């Protein structure tokens, strides 16, 4: 196996025992990038103005386009510095030499930081986001900035202004998921070993499920949001995308913790998330909820909301996983009711849009970002033209909805009501995990997504249908609780299926321990031997 | 059944949002917004008792895990040069913008 396909913990082991060098690891990553990445994206193609399918990549291209920008020299300097540290007998850190892609929603000093938008196409960040500072301090080597949905608005990476968009390594005609699409692609394809993304309604977990990697959303407040271009300030969670669960634990160890620059980063000690990984699941209570198999979602043809059963293959994969974990000593708790689950997307439509509209007000052409070159008669016209020219469809949609549902006449009916429904969604989780309650669950087992990866162009343009891709992931964002997706098999098209684990506040350790046990139990399964189509070529 | 967001209301939202749109964009976005409102209407399907409080965020931030405020001491801004370099137009440390619209109060 190539170095670029190994998990981080194995690379660190080889590096610190002298079997390889940080430069050799990085060069393996660069060779893979040269083989599968394809041309750098640009914003040259016209913005999709009325929701027609984004330009399809050439069908003959066997290329992935995971990155918006790659910083080869910077990466090489860091790798050389790490090798020099090792030669001097110094400890370069627990992630020494590990190649890292960073979702281009994080400011990294000296790099273009675009949020995949024309608005920030030429913006070079003057500072680095706290979680990235911490990962670099732990020895990680930043390779480049990964592509994403514009401003993290989306579940398919189709809304990026930087085209060609990233494509699913398992089937290049399909989306990688979003909004952390480029992050998931880079880890799945060996173009990075680990990635840092963000999860606001499932934007780490869903692309991880679609691309067959491990995606972890920590508890809200575990990871500082300083330096993260904000989408939904009460929902955004930075987190890792990795090849396995141990790597997720290593990433969390490095990135979590209080930060003087973020008053929503909890003042809690960071446990060693690797400490309990091998404890197994004996005695753990793992819950199954019918509300995650029975979906209330729009009919793809008519748009009408109706109750439907989830894709049988996906349901079966989750039940198989539960059975395996039961055989390993876990207690499966059935019928854990989470009755407010169907309200999670409707509430998200309101809350996230209000927060997004507020967070986008700052992009006005005054201090940074795009300013119109057109002749303007006054400041307000400058605002309008700059924003109209540089924002894509998705930001415009979110701003307008945010304005509507927070307007004085409508706020009680919409925004205030949504915040109260959020309390009900939160209570579903509190009840499920309550140690004195009916079910006393330690972890919930659910599907991550209602479907496997859909085709490029199949959903984009229908903003309601697209949002409902996050139906099973968004409840944890409302509740603030942690969640994780890991691969649990392939469907009949050969596409990855994601198993989601949900845990109580601050209890990433139990979630990781359950995930690690599942990984160990399924080590020799046939589907683990399958590789993404783009690598098999 | 008429759309909740009429073209007139939509135009007002566009002005609040400091945007300007082509007629084609406006029609498409207005249609999507009204479609989303149908999903949002699901919030009305269940009763929400009056004593259910709003949740600004999910996890409870108790005083012991909330970060303390820092001391009220001035710290110099070290990034001013880099920040000004990003600006479209500056003049001696000021951001230069067009004139603010004037309204006659007379």
What does this structure look like?
The complex is a heterodimer of chains A (537) and B (106). Chain A is of the alpha/beta class. Helices cover 34% and strands 13% of the residues of chain A. Chain A has 16 helices and 13 strands. Chain A has helices at residues 8-16, 22-36, 72-87, 130-137, 181-189, 205-211, 245-255, 312-327, 344-360, 379-390, 393-406, 412-433, 463-467, 474-479, 508-521, 533-536; strands spanning 67-70, 99-103, 141-146, 194-199, 214-217, 237-242, 285-287, 294-298, 305-309, 331-333, 443-447, 483-490, 496-503. In chain A, strands 1-3-2-4-6-5-12-13-11-7-10 form an 11-stranded mixed beta sheet, with helices on both faces. In chain A, strands 8-9 form a two-stranded antiparallel sheet. In chain A, helix 9 (344-360) packs across helix 12 (412-433). Chain A is globular, with a radius of gyration of 22 Å. The model of chain A has no long low-confidence stretch (mean pLDDT 95). Chain B is mostly helical and 106 residues long. Chain B has a domain at 1-45: Histone, subunit A, CATH 1.10.20. Chain B has helices at 7-16, 23-40, 80-85; strands spanning 90-91, 94-95. In chain B, strand 1 (90-91) and strand 2 form a beta hairpin. Chain B is flat, with a radius of gyration of 23 Å. Chains A and B meet through helix 9, helix 10, helix 11, helix 12 and helix 13 of A and helix 1, helix 2 and helix 3 of B.
* pLDDT < 50 runs, ≥5 residues of chain B: none
In angstroms, what separates the terminal alpha carbons of chain A? 15 Å
- Share of residues in strands of chain A: 5-15%
- The unreliable regions of chain A are none
Mean pLDDT of chain B: 92
Question: Total number of helical segments of chain B?
Answer: 3
* DSSP strand content of chain B: under 5%
Overall structural class of chain A, as computed from helix and strand content, comes to alpha/beta
Helical proportion of chain A?
25-40%
Following the backbone from N to C, one meets helices and strands of chain A in this order, namely: HHEHEHEHEHEEHEEEHEHHHHEHHEEHH
- Second-tier CATH architecture of the domain at 1-45 in chain B: Orthogonal Bundle
Q: Which structural class fits the helix and strand makeup of chain B?
A: mainly alpha
| Shape call of chain A | globular
For the report, how would you describe the main beta sheet of chain B? 2 strands, antiparallel
Helical coverage of chain B, percent range? 25-40%
């Amino acid at each position: 196996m190539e170095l670029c396909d190994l998990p981080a913990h194995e690379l660190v082991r080889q590096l610190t025992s002298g079997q390889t060098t940080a430069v050799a690891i990085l060069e393996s990553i660069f060779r893979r990038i040269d083989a599968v990445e394809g041309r750098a994206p640009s914003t040259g193609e016209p913005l999709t103005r009325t929701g027609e399918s984004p330009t399809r990549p050439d069908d003959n291209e066997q290329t992935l386009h995971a990155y918006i920008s790659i910083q080869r020299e910077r990466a090489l300097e860091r790798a050389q510095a790490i090798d020099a540290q090792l030669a001097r007998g110094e400890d370069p850190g627990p992630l020494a030499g590990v190649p890292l892609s960073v979702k281009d929603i994080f400011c990294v000093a000296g790099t273009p930081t675009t949020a995949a938008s024309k608005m920030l196409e030429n913006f070079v960040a003057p500072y680095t986001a706290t979680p990235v500072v911490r990962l670099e301090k732990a020895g990680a080597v930043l390779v480049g900035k990964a592509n994403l949905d514009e401003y993290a608005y989306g579940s398919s990476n189709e809304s990026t202004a930087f085209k060609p968009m990233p494509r699913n390594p398992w089937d290049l005609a399909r989306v990688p998921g979003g909004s952390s699409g480029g992050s998931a692609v880079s880890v799945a394809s060996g173009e990075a070993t680990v990635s840092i993304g963000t999860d606001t309604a499932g934007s780490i977990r869903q692309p991880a499920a679609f691309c067959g990697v491990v995606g972890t959303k920590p508890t809200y407040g575990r990871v500082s949001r300083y330096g993260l271009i904000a989408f939904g300030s009460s929902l955004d969670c930075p987190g890792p995308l990795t090849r396995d669960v141990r790597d997720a634990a290593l990433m969390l160890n490095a990135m979590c913790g209080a930060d003087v620059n973020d008053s929503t980063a909890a003042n809690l000690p960071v446990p060693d998330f690797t400490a309990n990984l091998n404890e197994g699941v004996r005695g753990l209570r793992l819950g199954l909820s019918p509300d995650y198999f029975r979906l209330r979602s729009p009919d793809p043809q008519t748009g009408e909301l109706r109750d439907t059963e989830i894709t049988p293959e996906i349901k079966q994969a989750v039940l198989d996983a539960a059975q395996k974990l039961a055989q390993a000593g876990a207690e499966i708790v059935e019928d854990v009711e989470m009755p407010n689950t169907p309200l999670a997307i409707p509430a998200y439509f309101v809350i996230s849009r209000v927060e997004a509209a507020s967070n986008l007000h700052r992009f006005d052409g005054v201090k940074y970002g795009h300013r119109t070159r057109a002749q303007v008669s006054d400041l307000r016209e400058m605002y309008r033209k700059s924003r109209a020219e540089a924002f894509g469809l998705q930001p415009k949609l979110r701003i307008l909805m945010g304005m509507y549902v927070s307007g004085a006449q409508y706020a009680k009916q919409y925004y205030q009501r949504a915040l109260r429904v959020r309390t009900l969604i939160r209570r579903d989780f509190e009840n499920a995990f309550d140690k004195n309650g009916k079910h006393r669950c330690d972890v919930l087992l659910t599907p991550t997504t209602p479907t496997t990866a859909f085709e490029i162009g199949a959903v984009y343009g229908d903003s309601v249908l697209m949002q409902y891709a996050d139906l099973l992931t968004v409840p944890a964002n409302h509740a603030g609780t942690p969640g994780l997706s890991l691969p649990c098999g392939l469907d009949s098209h050969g596409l990855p299926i994601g198993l989601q684990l949900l845990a109580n506040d601050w209890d990433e350790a139990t979630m990781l321990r359950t995930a690690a046990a599942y990984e160990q139990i399924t080590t020799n399964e046939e589907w683990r031997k399958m590789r993404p189509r783009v690598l098999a070529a | 059944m008429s759309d909740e967001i009429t073209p007139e209301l939509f135009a007002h939202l566009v002005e609040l949002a400091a945007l300007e749109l082509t007629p084609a964009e406006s029609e498409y976005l207005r249609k999507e917004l009204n479609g989303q409102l149908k999903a949002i209407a699901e919030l009305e399907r269940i009763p929400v008792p009056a004593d259910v409080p709003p949740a600004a965020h999910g996890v409870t931030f108790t005083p012991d895990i909330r970060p303390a405020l820092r001391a009220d001491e001035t710290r110099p801004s070290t990034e001013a040069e880099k920040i000004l370099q990003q600006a479209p137009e500056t003049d001696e440390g000021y951001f230069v913008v067009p004139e603010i619209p004037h309204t006659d109060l007379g």
